[in-house]
Structures are given as structure tokens and as C-alpha cells.
Amino acid sequence: MTSTLILLRHGNSEWNAKNLFTGWVDVRLTEQGRAEAKRAGELLLEHDLLPDILYTSRLTRAIQTADIALEEADRLWIDVKRSWRLNERHYGALQGKDKAQTLEQYGPEQFQTWRRSFDVPPPPLDDDSEFSQAHDKRYAELGVDAPRTESLALVIERMLPYWHSDITESLAAGDVTLVVAHGNSLRALVKHLDGISDDEIAELNIPTGIPLVYELDDDFSPTGPGRYLDPEAAAAGAAAVANQGKK
Ligand SMILES: O=C(O)[C@H](O)COP(=O)(O)O
Fold first, then answer.
1. Is residue 145 part of a domain?
2. Which residue of 241, 243, 246 sits with most ligand 1 atoms within 8 Å of its CB, as the best mutation to test the pocket?
């Protein structure tokens, strides 16, 4: 038996629009982001891909995206599970910083290392920073272990247990499973699904607001490549993500 997994990065956010490193900072969608989420819902309807269950991060931009897309597909009623394990990568001391200024200040090599290396996290964020989540109630269960910065490797380490414990359970039950999350938490999941190497994952960028669909076998391995429901828009969106920071 195969099962269907739909991955969706949230639509354009207020800080995507301002070109700021966001991470765990809880910003909302822009008008453009809402339109992308609506289009995502239309694409699901057009392709007859109607989710039975929704997984999201605990961040508002993913929750808003899911709600708008599901409303469009007339599926707001499905069960929902949220977890911090699907959150964006914690961007450490880069949270709140301008991507173009950071590139200019630190140079392209350091900038790329922080954004796309597999296991080099940015410096940790101070708990008294206005961009810290150290005292955010929604992460109370994490206590002192709440991240202050993360590499992609650390995202994989906290995301994969949730994939194995919860998301694959829905897939095994035959549910069309929608996961609405973030650029880097989805890069982590796609790395796992497609068996992408630690080096090659640097080249993978996930566009905002376009559903990416996988058919999975009984072992939750893809039976073929993931397919974006709007491949042209996805290619353009991924290129724009890759170029963030460049003028
Ligand atoms: O947290 C952010 O700034 C973005 O959502 C992802 O940023 P990146 O593409 O620079 O990793």
C-alpha cells in the first residue's frame, strides 16, 4: 500500500518580506503569503489531494498557512497536531538580523556557512534578547533545553523522532497527511526522505506556499521523486530563496 504525504512551507511572512533572519520569532503572513496559502489550497483541490490530517509547527505563519489552504479545500474540519519539533530552525544570534547586511558584514563564505552548512550553528541567542523565545510559554515543556541556536543537523535530530512517532502513524493508517512547516524543517525532512548527503543538502531550497507531494511505500520511503503541484512557480521560488541576501 502507498500513502500520500504533502509538504507545504508557509507563505511569505512579514520577515521574509523584510529579508530578516526569522527562525523561532513568531511573525505573521503578509498579504502575498495569504494569497500563496489560498493558491496552495486551490492546488490541493485541483489535484484531488484532500488531506485527512494536518501537522504544523507551533509558529503562527505555518498555522495561518494551513488554515487558509484548508479553508480553500473545504477541509478546515480535519484533525490537527502541532509540535515545536516542526518549527523553523532556531537561527540563534542571527534572528532579527537583515540578511543583506549580514552578507555584507561577514562575507559570502560565512553567510553561506550559517545559512546552509549541515552542522555549523550560528552563535547562540542571549535569553534577554528581544528576539529570544527562552521565556515563551508555548515551549515551556522544553525547560532549559529549549534551543538557543540550531544547525540543520540539530533540526534533524529533533524533527525525526516526531516523524517516526507521529507522522508515520497517520501515513500507516492511510491518511493523506499534510505537514505545514518551514524552509529548514522541511529541508530536514526532504533530506531524510530523498537520502540527500550532508554536502548536497546545501543546494536544496524550499519555496514558500507550494505543495510538494510524495507517494510513500510501506517503509515510508518515496516511490519516486517528490513533485511540486506548480513546478514552474516552485523553481522560481526556490531560486529566490537561494538568492536571499544578494542585492
Ligand atoms: O528563518 C528564516 O529566516 C527563514 O524562514 C529561512 O531562512 P533561510 O532560507 O535563510 O535559511
1. no
2. 241
Average pLDDT over residues 199-212: 98
Q: Is the CB of 187 under 6 A from ligand 1?
A: no
Contact 66, 53 (CB under 8 A): no
The parent domain of residue 166 ranges over 3-89+152-242
When divided into structural domains, the chain yields a total of 1
Checking ipTM against 0.90, whether it exceeds it is: yes
- Nearest one of 70, 11, 69 to 208, comparing CA atoms: 11
Q: Are 36 and 16 in contact (CB under 8 A)?
A: no
Please check whether residue 29 is in contact with residue 12, taking contact to mean a CB–CB distance below 8 angstroms. yes
Please indicate if the annotation marks 197 as binding a ligand.
Answer: no
Residues in a beta bridge with 216: 3, 222
Give tens-digit pLDDT for 116-138. Answer: 999 999 999 999 999 999 999 99
Q: How far is the CA of 41 from the centre of ligand 1 (A)?
A: 23
Q: Which residues belong to the active site? A: 10, 88
β 3-9/212-216 pair status: antiparallel
Is residue 124 situated within a structural domain? no
Q: Is 227 annotated as a binding residue?
A: no
150 annotated among ligand-binding-site residues? no
CATH code of the domain in which 43 resides: 3.40.50.1240
Is there a domain that residue 132 lies in? no
Smallest CA separation from ligand 1 atom 6, residue: 183
φ and ψ of 27, to 5 deg: -90, 165
15 found inside a domain: yes
